[in-house]
Amino acid sequence: MSIFRYLSRFYMRLAVVRLSQAIVCRWPIGNVMPKPAAALRLLTMCGQNTLDLLRQSLLSVYWSWTQLPRLCVCMDGTIDSRDVKKAVPWWPGEMEIQSWEVYAHSLAKKGHSDILTYAQRELFGKKLACILASAEIGPTLYSDTDVLWFSEPSLPSSSAAITIRMSVDDVYSYDFSLLEHLNCRDILKRPPLNAGIVFVDGPALEVPLIHEAVTRVAQFPHNFSEQTILALAGNYLGDHWPAEEIAIFTTDKDRLIRPGTYPRFRNWVARHYVSPVRQLFWIDALAHAWIFRR
Fold it and tell me: Which residues, other chains included, contact 178 with Cβ-Cβ below 8 Å and sequence gap of 6+?
């Protein structure tokens, strides 16, 4: 491929993405009506750079779910509650907005000071603290802001003290030094798991393996430590959604707009638009708006 052709395709993709984002961010939300409440906490973490993603992700929840969970927005320290309320003033269900410190300190008060140390040192430590603290309050479905929902997910029903379900990844994005330290490399014989969408219920930090892992990463944090800890819990204490239900893949990173590529036609419940395909979030969000809101 010539450099001219490559640049032409690159700028064409960029133009389509920016146009899609501009249209969907200005698309009228319409008449938002209350829906029945679900016995579930929908947790997400948001910052200054992800407010637009938050808005579209929550719109996809509203338009595709029959029941609305209690929305719990964890702020990463770059915004305050006014920013969140401005981004989603239309949310018709219950909503709580807390800083990550509130969640982390609640765990530290129970004797888990290492999770606070980890959260202070690493952004994904903040995310892990929010997930684990919320799960001690009640059943929690965590969703990254770069997720679009097309229908309601299946959630585990278990009488176990701790329940966890994760999504299947297409690559092992783990903290391998942590796995070595814990002697848990056998996890690599199982499907790779991703923490972009995760259901947790119960006090996971009471599990010795999880407690030891958090103690370790408080001293030696890594970008994938949080995902590795949740994957350990998911593999040893829970299960995962089928890849056909929660989609995570990057093979279509170069697509523009083609007939038949809209995810709803593939019977997905949700898609997590990880960084190599983040641009497709806006293209599919526009398709989502066209189908659900017109």
Answer: 213, 216, 217, 220, 222, 225, 228, 229
Residues 272, 243 contacting (CB under 8 angstroms): no
Domain 3-27+45-293, what architecture?
Answer: Alpha-Beta Complex (3.90)
| Dist CA 125 CA 223 (whole Å) | 9
pLDDT along the chain (294 residues), means of 10: 63 75 82 92 97 96 96 97 96 96 97 97 97 97 97 86 93 97 96 97 94 97 96 91 91 63 67 91 88 72
How many CB atoms are located within 10 Å of the residue 258 CB? 8
- Residue 291 burial by Cβ neighbours in a 10 Å radius (0-12, 13-18, 19+): middle
In a 10 Å sphere around its CB, with 0-12 CB exposed, 13-18 middle and 19+ buried, how is residue 261 labelled? middle
pTM assigned to the model:
0.92
Question: Sign of the C-alpha dihedral, residues 246, 206, 216, 186?
Answer: negative
Among 193, 199, 188, 293, which residue's Cα sits nearest to residue 243?
A: 193
Asked if 277 and 252 touch (Cβ cutoff 8 Å), the reply is yes
CB 75 within 8 A of CB 99: yes
User: End-to-end alpha-carbon separation of the chain, Å?
Assistant: 40
Query: How distant, in Å, are the alpha carbons of 33, 118, 195, 222 from that of 122?
Result: 39, 6, 16, 8
**165 forms bridges with which residues in the sheet?**
199, 239
**85: CB partners within 8 A, 6+ apart:** 97
Identify the three-state secondary structure at position 98: strand
Contact 141, 42 (CB under 8 A): yes
Question: Strand, helix or coil at 263?
Answer: helix
